[in-house]
Design brief:
Elements (H helix, E strand, L loop, with lengths): L9 E4 L6 H28 L8 H30 L3 E3 H34 L4 H4 L2 H18 L1 H8 L8 E2 L6 H6 L6 H35 L4 H29 L5 H26 L4 H14 L1
Parallel strand pairs: 1-3
Antiparallel strand pairs: 1-2
Helix pairs in contact: 1-2, 1-10, 1-11, 2-3, 2-10, 3-5, 3-8, 3-9, 6-8, 8-9, 9-10
Length: about 300
Amino acid sequence: MQRNQTYELYFIIKGISDDPSLQFLIFLLVLLMYLITLCGNITILFACRDPNLHTPMYFFLGNLSIVDICCSTVSLHKILINYISGNKMVSFLACMSQMFMFGSFQGLELFILTAMSYDRYVAICMPLRYHMVMNIRVCAIMASVCWVLAFVQNIPPVGMVYNLTCYFSIEINHFFCDIIPVIQISCNDTSVVEMLFFIEGFFPILVTPLVLTFIPYIFIISAILKIRSASGRRKAFYTCSSHITVVILLSTTLFSQYLTPNISSTLEAKKCFALFNTAAVPMLNPLIYSLKNKDVKKALKRCMAKVK
């Protein structure tokens, strides 16, 4: 199918499963996970209003909560809308927009997590200089760089997909417009865009943030081991364990989703990884990071008291 200059092409989103008996169950599961994601991350943002949480760590956690909400909304809304309306069609421009926004928010999440590792490094390795080094200006600059870089890096691959002119099918074997499934149905030569996506996805988006995240932890672990009190070591490890858990969880699912061979036997598995990445990870982040934190619980009580 040729795409003309009026961009009237549309795609059909296949979804997670073709089994009609599973559609309602999938809808309920996704809706439940999405609502938990919204509630958890909005709660974190609500708690971050408390003056006692106006610290660099919670500043970046607030950014992460915004990213999680946006990423889940961008990727999961089509599943919910498709089930309610029964219409699985999406226009070409809407598909490209979803692809760009989702890829940008995924990259942004990794960049924010990288910035958070340096916050933890300064907090543990340079505690006396923490508030001087991680001041408001530095945090704002770091967050701004993360946001700008995440959206800029996604322009080249999405721009190349946008310029593909021929598709042998209009059915996308996924539950949203992701770049790999769209490339797979194009009858153009996609070797260049695939290579660009792999190189850009493997190095600047996945490997570089991971390396920049784990380098500070070499110094953090060394500093923690030098702490004399067992309670001090436990508290420091507890602070870092949440961050490391989220980084490993996200990077593992992204690697499985995008950087494994695109053969037919792995396509359904990739959709499962994508669902876990877009629904489960944003849902778990507030639980892993903050909602079990005593400071957050106290802040929520104070905020609720003010509302009453």
